[in-house]
Structures are given as C-alpha cells and as structure tokens.
Amino acid sequence: VQLQASGGGSVQPGGSLRLSCAASRFTLDSYAIGWFRQAPGREREGLSCISTSKGVTKYANSAKGRFTISRDNAKSTVDLQMNNLKPEDTAVYYCAAGDVRLCVGSSWTYAMDYWGKGTLVTVSS
DSSP string of the chain? Predict the structure, then answer.
C-alpha cells in the first residue's frame, strides 16, 4: 500500500488549495482515507475521513466549513479542498489509509495503518 499526497504550496490568507491523495497497489474504495496535518511543534491532527463504500465522511471541528473531502473518480484520488486558508493552517499535510470502517466512528484520528509522505502548505502574506 502506497500513498502520495500532492498539491501543497504557498498561498495568501483567504486563498484556496486542493490537495490530492493518490494510491498505488490498492483501491481507494477498499479503505477509509483520512487527511491529517502536523504543524511545527504540534501534534498531528486529524482533519477529515472518507469511506466511499460506507458512504461516510467525517470532519474535525477545525476543518468544518472550510475543508471538503471528496473522491475524484476520474483521477482516482481522494482530494481535500481547502478554502479561506489562514496562517494557522500552515503545516505538512498527510493522507492515510485504514480499515474501511474507521470513518464510521472516531478512531480514524489515530488508527490509520498506512501513511504517505506529506505535502507542505504555507499560508502567509
């Protein structure tokens, strides 16, 4: 199982970015896919989880209203659309995969099995 996050970059406050998580050697729909971030000096934070086969999406409070997770069938990715970005959103963003049932409860925030390399998001004026 391999995951790769992409789409990070530098953006001004109020701007938007769309991150993508691509998978190799497995089918995204067979797993719960989560997006996480880790800012310097802070613990890793779960942002959102999607399980397309279960029809479930979850958002952490910090992501509600500004971030949207979705499955892009054309690209075979799980994307995280981030709007109205703030300086405190600056972090390395990761995608992860785990048991397809994880998104149903709250354990997705700590029980993912596979992690990809992150992509850096910098929000600064």
Answer: -EEEEE--EEE-TT--EEEEEEEESS-GGGSEEEEEEE-TTS--EEEEEEETTTTEEEE-TTTTTTEEEEEETTTTEEEEEE-S--GGG-EEEEEEEE-TTGGGSSGGGT---EEPBPEEEEE--
Tokens of 12: 């001004």
What are residue 35's DSSP bridge partners? 48, 95
pLDDT tens for 73-111 read 888 899 999 999 999 999 999 999 999 999 988 899 889
Q: What sign has the CA pseudo-torsion 58, 110, 94, 96?
A: negative
Of 25 and 119, the one with more pLDDT: 119
For the chain, how big is the Rg over CA atoms in Å?
Answer: 13
Reported as a pLDDT band with limits 50, 70 and 90, residue 10 is very high
